[in-house]
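I would like you to sit down with the pair of lines that follows and say whether tokens and residues agree.
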Amino acid sequence: MKHTDIFEVLNNRALVNNNVTVCGWVRTSRDSKNMAFLELNDGTTLKHLQIVIDKEKMSDISEFMKLGTSLKVTGEVVKSVVAADSVEINAESIEVLGTCPSEYPLQKKRHTLEYLRTIPALRVRTNTFNAVFRVRSVVSASIHEFFQNNHYTYIHTPLITASDCEGAGEMFRVTTVGVEDGFKTQDEADAADFFGRRAALSVSGQLEGEVAAMALGKIYTFGPSFRAEKSNTPRHVAEFWHVEPEVAFAELPDIIEIAEALIKHIINAVLTKCPEELKFFDAHFEKGLIEKLTNVANNDFAVMTYTEAIQKLKESGEQFKYPVEWGLDLMTEHERYISEVICKKPVFLTDYPKEIKSFYMKQNPDGKTVAATDLLVPGVGEIIGCSEREADLDKLLDAMKIRNMNLMDYEDYISLRKFGSVPHSGFGLGLERIIMYVTGVQNIRDVILYPRTVGSIS
């Protein structure tokens, strides 16, 4: 139906003293003796548009006042009586598009995020999720903008795969056979399956991305990834969105520079395009958020080796829940302490022990560490996992054999090291984690439309 977006009404002063038609859902309503007031939102802006009803012109307004009701309103745009920099509409006609019963769960009181997770189909109508998904859209667009402006090719890697990029085995199996088919062994079932072998949902597009980078130079993938990791934490979901660039002729310092430039580009985009949303998050989720993001965008990130970080953690005197020893993986509490207390800003932690990192990472000359880095940010911990890839065929094969990997599953990947191998690097950035960082929202379940977590697929 023909109508004007509420964003346009609120921001185009040429519409003042003109009649428009708007559509939206009633967010709040207030009745008085002679007048009634509605706050209407259509999703095009975080701000609501006030609708003023003269009860002498409209006597039966009961259906208009119910929260959640969808309306079509026609009237004159006038300057707001109470807000000098805003406008409102004096309603001339109102049509109910969709009624809403009294049991509508989003009433005037403020609901907890935990409660809102139980009503995912409706929580998007709240201010919080209106703002979250608007920021998510801007962040996603800015990622494409960054790579397209820097001559990367956008690659779509397969979501169904026969190889485990991370080597951890935490994958969702894709199959058309089941126990009712009566197979005696797993090998027999695999042979009879759709692909003639075991298949799973991809945990990463990296391996296929490297194939593309060996021909196209600079590529990126951006799509969903799936991990059957039974981690019921505020930072983990089973299905998430993942951006992964792969860059030929790039060593670790080069890819660190690219990663920092991407993060700053994303932050600047949000600061520029989402001022109202950031004010909301600054007020309700993280005090000082805008100042934090502005500082990050305008200052260099820190760089520290894993070995240096372990030493500083030990010297801190802090009582951590998990042990701090060289050779152990860092936990979220360690990562946040490094970025929030030691460095007080984002930090690239480099040169991790090779035993705790993936098989494809380039081995350093010391024989103990790999040319890898994680970007740790205050409030979240790790948001980027990054490395120079091992370009030496013999070293790659040794790393795979130590992990008892089936080399036949990685024939294409191995072949890249035989035919014109070059130094190359890449990283993975979790979309939800960068959104958490720029909004101050603390739980990953609250920055994705339908969070998929262990034991829950509602």
Notes: The longest strand covers residues 19-31. The two ends are 32 Å apart (CA to CA). The chain has a mean pLDDT of 94. The longest helix spans residues 127-149.
